[in-house]
Design goal:
- The protein is 30% helix and 19% strand.
- The strands form 2 sheets. It has an 11-stranded mixed beta sheet, with helices on both faces. It has a 5-stranded parallel beta sheet with strand order 14-13-15-12-16, with helices on both faces.
- The protein has 350 residues and is α/β, with parallel strands linked by helices.
- α1 packs across α5 and α9 runs parallel beside α10.
- The protein folds into 2 domains: 216 residues, DHBP synthase, CATH 3.90.870.10; 107 residues, Threonylcarbamoyl-AMP synthase, C-terminal domain (Rossmann fold).
- The radius of gyration is 20 Å and the shape is globular.
- Magnesium ion binds next to loops.
């Protein structure tokens, strides 16, 4: 399939490409587009045949539901009940990186919700995404625009890498600001429960309802007794081709351990990468591939650069990535959640 690629520099002058992409969505096609979290792979969320194409293009398991993206807060036609807390939460955090789960109406096809009776809805803040949804005149079902299992793309080049030839249209814009997927908050239960940590943190949500908590299953390795409530969280995810090991805990011990380990790997003729921060770059020798995610004082920078760093290590052909851990607090919760999944829970506490 030929993929049309259109990169928008200035939304006011390039409006034509959004119209073009919207006409692909209206006809049941698939379009990759920028959002503030990561790039999305969208199709008409109310058209089962269109939605199926998303699963095919990504190689996504059928039991992993999609989030639908809307351009306003009027959800009456899509969901059964809107609890009063939902209005308060939408007013505070929408548009933005927060997905809300509601009981769905029948208008949402089963393929979109993977046969669940609930649906995840989000209003993104990215201007191109909002215009695309408005012009399409339908909610856009969109998972991240990567081949299933790979780190989510945060710029258009990574979308092209994964999806050129597989979908009709790639709409490019600026780099994603948040860098990790949306927080998912289940409002179909009381008290509301966070099913996936993201840019809107537990601490921020607790300001609205202090009973809000994180699904205990998601920070741990999957086991028979506790399964995450968001079906997608059970898969190995966000994973580069290289193996990842997280070293977490006391700063000095972390650096010492990484130095020890990397010498060992080098002796065994492996190509090693170290994923660190601005403050620690100087401690590692230049015999390894080093990527800094930014300053530890700015967790939003760390989150923004995380997936791109994982993909860059693959470009460099490293065999193993030694990654420094982060404290599981505020945005650190989302960062560690993605890191642990990428590392298949290979984590060394020091
Ligand atoms: P992605 O769009 O690739 O970031 O994946 C969407 C995530 O949202 C997956 O982890 C899904 O399992 C989760 N999700 C979507 N809809 C629901 C729902 N109705 N209930 C629970 N989790 C959901
Ligand atoms: Mg995804």
């Amino acid at each position: 399939m030929d993929t049309k690629i259109s990169i928008i520099k200035d939304i006011h002058n390039d409006y034509k490409s959004i119209e073009e992409a919207a006409s692909v969505i209206k006809k049941g096609g698939v379009v990759a587009f920028p959002t503030e979290t990561v790039y999305g792979l969208g199709a008409d969320g109310l058209n089962p045949l269109a939605v199926k194409k998303i699963f095919e293009a990504k190689g996504r398991p059928q039991d992993n539901p999609l989030i639908i993206h809307v351009a306003n807060k009027n959800l009456e036609s899509l969901v059964q009940e809107i609890p009063s807390i939902a209005n308060e939460i939408m007013d505070r955090f929408w548009p933005g990186p927060l997905t809300l789960i509601f009981k769905k109406k029948d208008i949402i096809p089963n393929v979109t919700s993977a046969n669940l009776d609930t649906i995840g809805v989000r209003m993104p803040s990215n201007e191109i995404a909002l215009k695309l949804i408005e012009s399409s005149g339908t909610p856009i079902a969109a998972p991240s625009a990567n081949i299933s299992g790979r780190p989510s793309p945060t710029d258009v080049e990574r979308c092209i890498e994964d999806l050129e030839g597989k979908i009709e249209y790639i709409l490019g814009g600026s780099r994603s600001d948040v860098g990790v997927e949306s927080t998912i908050l289940d409002l179909s239960v009381d008290p509301p429960c966070i099913l996936r940590p993201g840019g809107i943190t537990l601490e921020m949500l607790k300001e609205i309802d202090e009973r809000i908590y994180i699904d205990p299953a998601i920070m741990k390795k999957n086991n028979e007794n506790i399964k995450p409530k968001a079906p997608g969280m059970k898969y190995r995810h966000y994973a580069p081709k290289a193996k990842i090991k997280i070293i977490n805990g006391n700063t000095e011990k972390t650096i010492e351990k990484i130095k020890d380990l990397l010498q060992n790997y080098i002796d065994n003729k492996l190509k090693v990468g170290v994923m660190t921060c601005d403050e620690h770059v100087k401690y590692y020798s230049n015999h390894v591939e080093i990527i800094s995610l930014g300053s530890r004082k700015k967790l939003d920078e760390i989150a923004k650069n995380l997936f791109e760093a994982l993909r860059s290590f693959d470009d460099k052909g490293v065999d193993i990535i030694l990654a420094e851990g982060y404290q599981e607090k505020d945005l650190g919760i989302a960062i560690m959640n993605r890191l642990k999944k990428a590392a298949a829970y290979d984590i060394l506490e020091v």
